[in-house]
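can u pls check wat happens w/ S-adenosylmethionine
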Amino acid sequence: MIAKAGCARYGPRAKGHTHIPAMNQNETSTHFGFRDVPLRDKQRMVDEVFHSVAGRYDLMNDLMSAGLHRAWKDALVSKLRPPLSERAFHALDVAGGTGDVAFRIVDAGGENVAVTVADINGDMLGVGRDRAASLGHANAVRFVEANAEALPFPDRRFDAVTIAFGIRNVPRIPVALLEMFRVLKTGGRFFCLEFSQVDVPGLDAVYDAYSFRAIPEIGRLVTGDRDSYQYLVESIRKFPERDAFSRLMRDAGFSRVEATPMTGGIVALHSGWRL
Ligand code: SAM
């Protein structure tokens, strides 16, 4: 079942959140990779990227990361610790695409663990729905077409909220953080897995060379679309550093914010609680 995005009733303003962190107030431009673009154009450009790569997205993830994305997602889910008991537990995976994190949460938890995948791109969700059916997860995982900046869910709906490799694509990150905070239950935890800054001398140069030379070329060979992978690589470099992102999370309301770098800082797992 697909619910459409933009349910006005549940937008950030509907529940009285008036505090939008200063960083993006009145902003009219942003970046799309290394290019400055009007804020209103970014989402369309991002959507074109994921429309173009959806069919080969999972294969490309394995190729680009040499399978490491699996270990990073496993680390997220082991920190999330979905209950193994019969307790009902409902997680939201924002920008969940083809369902990778959602399937892991369901696999790791008990029989009453369910996940809603929310993503703005119907093509990515279509791949996810097919995967859910073939993995036998169609009942536990539902797919909803929705914008992270205006989640069509009531306040305090979910026991946990996750986002993996999604937030850097969202035009107004502080707005999405407020939304993810809004739909999280009091006592619930938020996790954000995202590319970060390499902090191991030597690895940074190798990583740069691999990212800028190899990844767009692998993208061209596998998907026929070099530009989309050039964007993905550039967008990683434009994402806020760990401390800055932790501050954005605190501004959105999260408490006990932590950032855990993994694989020499190639990625980081941020977490925070709604208390
Ligand atoms: N989370 C998945 C994973 O780790 O494999 C997919 C990550 S993929 C790199 C980024 C996803 O973010 C895409 O599926 C894209 O459609 C989604 N996305 C981009 N902007 C979004 C927005 N404003 N709201 C919801 N999803 C968005």
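The longest strand covers residues 184-195.
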